[in-house]
Protein 1
Amino acid sequence: MLQRETTRTVRISNLELGGNPKVYIQSMTNTHTKDVEATVKQIKQLTDAGCEIVRVAVLDMVDAQSLGEIKSKISIPLVADIHFDYRLALEAIRQGVDKIRLNPGNIPKREHVMEVVEACKAKNIPIRIGVNSGSLPNRMAPTAENMVATAKHHIDILESMGFYDIALSLKATDMKLMIEANRLAAKTFPYPLHLGVTEAGTAFSGAIKSAMGIGILLAEGIGNTIRVSLTDNPVLEIQAAKEILKNLGLKDKVPNLISCPTCGRIQYDMIDIAKRIEAYLLTINKTINVAIMGCAVNGPGEATHADIGIAGGKGEAILFRRGKIIKKIKESEVYDVLIEEINQFDDSVIEKDSQ
Ligand code: SF4
């Protein structure tokens, strides 16, 4: 397990951010929050995919008044994303949300911020301050120092009111700036950090950008929650987040697919099988390495190191289980046999073996 920076512990419902090495996966719905049915449906899809904290946009009082019903129908902590209007924050808190995302420096009157802070204190609800490089105040240049200074401005307001249940995010579309800003924030503040490359793009390019930005920081021990922002179905954000965490050893019970890139030695339709198996693996929660290899050159080596593996041949493949050759199978049977092997694989036995 990677060494994690220790931060102040902040509770969100039944989750603890910062005081332990766990990194939580967060996403945001793209339904209209006042459409409770659609919002709950999407949150359930996100939860099934592995989302652990969900944020919804609160644009007006009808959105805010829908939060209680949404909360009563979901099983993960609910975060209300609010800009400028303290009354929406008060209503969201009344409705029972688990966290507020709000920048106190954007609320003009101190007594209004105080009302929100008192309401949060009374219900033990944390506040996330979110600084985006594209919307710094007073036309400040988007630099790491200015992002941290903006965060400090908001934090100072909350701390001056004796409020310390704070989480923080410093997001930028420029991955290098996002990394720099979060490194500086981790040195400057004791609060848990939520990581994300904002407006990262569509599924392919956005996942790569996010994996680099978020992954580099997590590898340095920085970050307590993550969001992969994608212009797509948010369920894909969860799949990408799980890949990032799994590859850094920060999440188990996530299957791992090992597959060769194929070359001129390939003699069966491996790409199709690998894609179908990958789609199936997304639906299960198991610590399992599945290798799908094209031929006998590198195939058996990788396949024997995986928990389940196949090395292809001409119209057939060799099946491996825990390093041992099990049998030859016909190409037409490969998918079904792999699914059966994956379903029967008991990952607790591996954990016992490695102790
Ligand atoms: S495993 Fe075989 S088919 Fe796949 S890339 Fe390597 S040599 Fe080519």
Protein 2
Amino acid sequence: MSIVQAKPHSATEAVNGNTLVSPNVKQFIEFDHPQKYRTSEWYTGHGKIAAQGDGRSFEITASYTLKAEVQVVDGIFEPSNPILADVYSRRGRCVAIVDQTVNELYGEAIRGYFEAHNIPLKLMACRAWESDKTPETVHRLLGFLGKDGCDVSRNEPVLVVGGGVLSDVAGLACALQHRRTPYIMIGTTVVAAIDAGPSPRTCTNGQQFKNSMGVYHPPVLTLVDRKFFATLDTGHVRNGMAEIIKMAVTDDPILFKLLEDYGPQLLENHFATLGGDNELADIADEVIYRALFSYMKHEGTNMFETYQDRPHAYGHTWSPRFEPAVKLMHGHSVTIGMAFGATLAQEMGWLNTEDRDRIINLCRSLGLSVYHPILEDLDLMLEGQKNMRRKRGEGGLWAPLPTGIGSCSYAQEVSSGLLQTAVETHKELCTAFSDEGKGQQMYLSDLGLE
Ligand SMILES: NC(=O)c1ccc[n+]([C@@H]2O[C@H](COP(=O)([O-])OP(=O)(O)OC[C@H]3O[C@@H](n4cnc5c(N)ncnc54)[C@H](O)[C@@H]3O)[C@@H](O)[C@H]2O)c1
């Protein structure tokens, strides 16, 4: 602890090693908390207190440091893989929340892994459909983690294994357990592996607006193993590719080119996990790594969304309003938002026609939707803007829009006139396509697919 005083030194005295201060002295005290008293091995903090010297007021600033690690790995649950055993053998058990479908497919492998390492496993299988993304599910998970369940300690990382719905709700439950309990995320869908999994944005849905309640709480470790993609429905692989396109368009032109060249093959062979086709394994790893790095470069370093220059919000400005309104798959709703955003950017003179068409064609080459008539509901679109402006802090709409392949800027406002013109242009463009821009399997069902 260090003290800086603006007035005479006589104002402080030490009693039993504790520094006492006079209320009438302007001073500044900085705390470096001793390492031996740490609550958790995952988080650190630092604080300052500045007294105004008027005997009535003082100001506190505190910073909180989170370290989040991301690793692309092979065979997470192969007994020879030491990563999880190293973490959990020290704690004498592993408390895990696993997506119900993933438990059916991989539960045996998960149990076998912990048995092989003599680590007791407490596993809760949780159904995690989009319709389960509710405060009730979070509450149920807290029952499992809390005092009446496993009584998880504040320094015990919960293992979460599943898709984006589970990472959102289980991450939120971990954030609420003891106010902040760490978790390790294994994303088993493409969306969860490269986006929702490492994301700090845990949440649940509201009635009309997606992801409207939540907290910022990233996993301390994200493990990405594309082998899980082998058992995904192809529709879910396609859905996840939308989030990769988003980073390619706004941040990484090499990733964009890789998707143009190999995207359809990666979709077909589920990122080189099907049919013994390992030829594209290196490309699959590079696409995953680039998408993750690009996303976390922006999202991970702006963990509490203290700034709104967020390229990864491309395609996510109007879609949180129209996605639940017509029950679209998240990825399709994002590509509709991105394709519309490309047309809007072209209308605004930010993007040339050739790059607009490359963006729309890339989405279409993967069977992702680029148009839905819900865009023509101007009231709903304007309401979406209003919601989004509020969510982004009322400083502006800050809609990320492409300025080329691999770059973007932020539209502070979009007038209703411009919005309507852009929708009309986009409709005209898309009705010329044989499928009118519908793509394949755009709607949610209970199972998440048509
Ligand atoms: N927090 C964020 O930053 C963020 C980012 C992107 C998306 N999201 C959210 O993620 C959700 C979508 O996630 P999703 O696309 O992963 O969907 P999902 O979690 O609904 O998973 C899709 C389906 O696949 C099943 N499944 C999971 N892994 C499987 C596997 N390996 N093999 C076979 N089936 C498997 C699940 O049981 C589910 O039925 C949306 O709610 C979206 O809002 C959040």
